[in-house]
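Write out the 3D structure for:
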Amino acid sequence: MEALPRLTLADIRDAAARIAPHAQVTPLLHSRSLDDLAGAKLHFKCENLQRMGAFKFRGACNAVWSLPEDVAQRGVVTHSSGNHGAALALAASTRGILCHVVVPEGAVKSKLAAIERYGAQLHHCAATIAAREQTAARVQQQTGATLIHPYADPRVIAGQGTAALELLRQSGGVDVLITPVGGGGLSSGCAIAARGVSPGIAIYAAEPEGAPDAYESFRRGERFTDIVPQTIADGLRGTLGEINFALMRDNVNAVLLVSEAQIVAAMRLIWERLKQIVEPSSATVLAAILRHPQHFAGKRVGVVLSGGNVDLDALPWMSP
């Protein structure tokens, strides 16, 4: 097993200082009607309003600006279904370095357009994790670029954790924190940050029933990735990272599953009640709160809305 990185609250605070000149401090929003529906006080951290439309910019920015100058000048490379690729491309542009992004077949067109708009060079591959990793390794060998993994990179994890630091400061403290979980970068980073600031906080991760690798890993007590994801939440189709699972296992109370119908309903509720456009991956958190009320009722809840990069021509409640 890959060694557990020594990632602490101090690392996340360092990341917050490092990205401060580049990242947005995103707002914390509230909705009385959603509070009534959930029976809890919900504090929505709107990372859909982050630069490039997702929390991913935090981790990518921290990773890019952590590189020594001579290493940075050789560029960076990653594989991504969209948001991390766009985030790394934008982060690389803030430092004036090259960025290569390996993208799988079937990625959301609007996300691919964003990656190109931020100046990255695209490299296409088959829609499997193995193909993505193999292609990224080949590009890395050919260019000398530094690999910035979408989630299994301590620099990325530390950057993602800065969202929880902001949420806790803006809210004055919460009893419970919930994030979506795909590869585990956001969940593990926010869990370390939240537990570092507030050791008694309860932490949950929301996951689609159609991509339950984190849920199964928690249930089995060991990392389990033998799953073919089938979910509308394209940002959560990535395989749970090895170091991410290790960090989550020590800091997350449980993974809560939600159905596809619940994801779509929550996505629409957030649009209607909070007036925010979020992608399906983001909506899993509200869906989990409504499906599993026993963990949240009567409590102050920090809710991380991970991103808002939605294909408006393919909204899930529209007729084909």
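The CA atoms of residues 179 and 187 lie 6 Å apart.
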